[in-house]
């Protein structure tokens, strides 16, 4: 399976050592970059996978989140400094406490039963992020793979998401159509259903990538930090956050589909979200991200296959 994680290198360890961080050590790596522990509570993130557009805007978003997060039971990132080396962006951030809740399902497959400690941590994080209001800076962000701010020209999140779906399918829709029967019909029903969602819903921060490594916990399993905002970060419906989290929490394990169903039902019951709306948002997410790691390929990428599989599941109904 292709994971597209960035690699740690001796070059970057030496880079940080030359800048006074002689104890620099690899800490973590993801799609967007690799993170190094520098000491004194500071980490350096090398954005070799994707250069964040308008890093000062992302810095403002981090500040908006952190301001509200002071009242939450977990910490969020803060950018302390920014520099560029050989065309690669480097950010310095405060190190967040705790350890990853568990490895990503692409690395270690979870077991059949969802652990109560994990679902409890997810409920805490979702409840906390839903209390952080969406801000103008968040609305100005573009999600990965897109060419404009998500909210540009829109007053409602569902309408902005509907147009994102249309733009994303235009990128490599022929590739997706080869793996998803009646793709045009799915896109049409998804867009129509998004536009039909009720007016006046809440708008809060959306992380958009709450996979297990992005939630840190203490030795009791309580969340201590949520990190790596940026992949699909925006202002939006907290139900979208819950829907995507239910879908991506276990993408590649042998019980991935029943885990998604169980988490979708749990979040609908806990937060009062309509189950059909959560399923709708999951399909919109798949349509918006299917090609982020597979553009121009034969569709063999793991994330592409996951998106295509989600889109092939059952009929899409209009949200109630």
TrEMBL record:
Per the record, the coiled-coil ranges are none
Which keywords accompany this UniProt record?
Answer: Transferase
State the EC number(s).
Answer: 2.7.1.-
Q: What sequence ranges are listed for the domain Protein kinase?
A: 21-320
Q: Does the keyword Transferase apply?
A: yes
Q: Per its record, how is this protein called by name?
A: Aminoglycoside phosphotransferase family protein
Q: Which InterPro entries match?
A: Aminoglycoside_PTrfase, Kinase-like_dom_sf, Prot_kinase_dom
Superkingdom = Bacteria
Identify the enzyme class.
Answer: transferase
- What are the protein's GO molecular function terms? transferase activity
Pfam family, any one: APH
